[in-house]
Design brief:
The complex is a heterodimer of chains A (213) and B (285). Chain A contains 9 helices and no strands. In chain A, α7 runs antiparallel to α8. Chain A is mainly alpha-helical and 213 residues long. Chain A has one domain. In chain B, α4 runs antiparallel to α5. Chain B is elongated and about 70 Å long. In chain B, the strands form 3 sheets. Chain B has a 6-stranded mixed beta sheet, with helices on both faces. Chain B has a 4-stranded antiparallel beta sheet with strand order 2-1-4-5. Chain B has a 4-stranded antiparallel beta sheet with strand order 12-13-11-14. Chain B folds into 2 domains: 211 residues, Rossmann fold; 65 residues, Alpha-Beta Plaits. Chain B has 285 residues and is of the alpha/beta class. In chain B, β12 and β13 form a beta hairpin. The termini of chain B are far apart. The chains are: A mainly alpha (213), B alpha/beta (285). At the A-B interface, α1 and α5 of A face α2, β6 and α3 of B.
């Protein structure tokens, strides 16, 4: 675990380059809350942008020729990969908590009530973040950031699509379904996301272990 | 264990290049110059030592340990200096300390700071603000701060001015002075090796041409000069590389074949002569 944590901390130091942009992204849900009077759009939008940003480290690792650094440091390749996942997960979680709190405070001052469906769908933003990054990371390890540029936009396409879809759905019907099968649905989503995440990790480790730097 | 680096039968097959059956050893306390023309396989060999590439066959041992099976332990003891820096441009030298300090068990922060001081590197500067020579010193400071036993340098002097190159050579000589450390120094600027290299490993087109002491390497060759019209077929057969002029020729030969060139002018060689003539085919001279 020690080496995975070290590797995740190294990713954080890489991510420092984007920290100012990241802080700006963190306040976007407030703008969405003011204009949209909704928790859902802002939180999901932020999660989507953060999913894209979290993988920017691939981009500048390639551009800054950091493969030599990875070649020198005394950390196993497996731990480098798992550190990347740990970093992405921590970043996603922190982003979700901050944006959720900021949006909720904004909506409170605007006297907008937040219903339970909206909270559920906001949680879905976190799951979608994990889902999309789990698809992205092995592809980025396999093809690199330059070749797989389109891959970095998967979260944007995916989350925008899902949010659009949710807007079309009759919220009362969804509320009923959620009330009747809430535990089952939530359990299944979490289980499937976890399976996907584990498979993604396994695949990335396998790819990166034999990758020539 | 006397050899810090052992390479045995190292082979790496690419689609368009073969590093073929490379074997050499670098004893403790010495500097080995790893030379060869561009594209001869020097960087490939270094990447194989660092396990950045997967070898096709062969063995690499650092401090007696297999570099793949004991990767972490091996890399704790290897420092690297490359032709371009391997750190993030936006990092300050303090960020570099934080990043590398958490990765190496033997990292010594005080040593790092004293190395920065010695090399006149300001800790709050960003990596991108450093000149090429300063970036090289930073990489050396990083390598020395985790007590490396083997320092690997890949074309470190390319792009450096003569003063920075000379400084580097002094630093390397000091580094091995305790007899416990070694330097593996890849370069095609052979003048650098005169001052400091004890051993030479020379590769060309992926094949090992020579490995051994620098003095033996240089002593093994001679340049012969003469009239082109007097050149016999037997002499041509023993010339390694030939340069023809309108008035005569220059050729690289092995010292053992000097008897065939009794009437020609004979000169000692410098490392560059060996590299240049080895790459010239006799028939095209």
């Amino acid at each position: 675990m020690g080496n995975i944590t070290k590797s995740a901390r190294l990713e954080m130091l890489f991510f420092k380059t984007y920290f100012k942009q990241y802080l700006l992204i963190l306040i976007t849900p407030v703008i969405f809350a003011v204009f949209n009077k909704s928790l859902l759009t802002g939180v999901n939008f932020t999660m989507c942008i953060t999913a894209i940003m979290s993988n920017m480290t691939f981009d500048f690792t390639e551009k800054s020729n950091l493969s030599k650094l990875y070649g020198l440091i005394p950390v196993k390749r497996k731990h480098i990969v798992l550190g990347k996942y740990l970093f992405v997960m921590i970043l996603g979680l922190i982003t979700f908590i901050i944006t959720f709190i900021l949006s909720s405070i904004t909506l409170y001052f605007l006297n907008v009530n937040i219903d339970s469906t909206e909270i559920s769908f906001s949680l879905f933003g976190l799951i979608a973040f994990v889902f999309f990054t789990a698809i992205q990371i092995p592809l980025l390890y396999k093809y690199g950031a330059t070749k797989a540029r389109l891959v970095m936009n998967i979260p944007f396409i995916g989350i925008v699509g899902i949010v659009g879809l949710l807007k079309l759905i009759d919220s009362i019907k969804v509320q009923n379904i959620l009330n009747n099968y809430a535990l089952f649905i939530v359990s299944m989503i979490i289980l499937l996301t976890l399976i996907l995440e584990c498979f993604s990790m396994y695949l990335s480790v396998k790819i990166y272990k034999i990758k020539e730097l | 264990m006397n050899d810090l680096l052992e390479v045995e039968g190292l082979t790496k097959q690419f689609d368009d290049f073969l590093l073929n059956n490379l074997s050499f050893t670098l004893p403790k306390g010495f500097i080995m110059g790893f030379i060869g023309p561009n594209g001869s396989g020097k960087t490939t060999t270094i990447k194989l030592i660092l396990n950045m590439l997967n070898r096709t066959s062969g063995k690499i041992k650092v401090l007696g340990l297999d570099n793949v099976d004991n990767e972490v332990l091996v890399k704790e003891n290897i420092g690297g200096v490359f032709d371009s820096n391997y750190l993030l441009d936006n990092w300050t030298l303090i960020d570099v300390e934080i990043a590398l300090g958490m990765l190496y068990k033997n990292w010594d922060k005080n040593k790092y700071m004293s190395m920065l001081n010695k090399f006149k590197l300001y800790p709050k500067k960003q990596v991108k603000e450093l000149s090429k020579g300063m970036q090289m010193k930073l990489m050396l400071a990083c390598a020395f701060s985790h007590d490396t036993k083997l320092l690997i340098l890949d074309e470190p002097t390319s792009g450096l001015d003569p003063i920075a190159r000379d400084e580097l050579l002094d630093i390397l000589s000091e580094y091995i002075s305790d007899g416990e450390r070694s330097v593996f120094f890849s370069t095609h600027i052979t003048q650098d090796l005169y001052k400091i290299a004890d051993y030479i490993t020379y590769i060309n087109n992926g094949k090992l041409i020579y490995t051994g002491t620098k003095d033996d390497f240089i002593n093994n060759y001679r340049i012969v000069k003469g009239d082109i019209k007097t050149l016999t077929q037997e002499q041509i057969d023993h010339i390694i590389g030939l340069r023809r002029y309108s008035s005569g020729y220059e050729g690289l030969i092995e010292k053992g074949h000097l008897r065939l060139f009794k009437n020609e002018l004979c000169e000692n060689v410098v490392l560059d002569d060996i590299l240049v003539f080895q790459s010239r085919e006799v028939c095209n001279g």
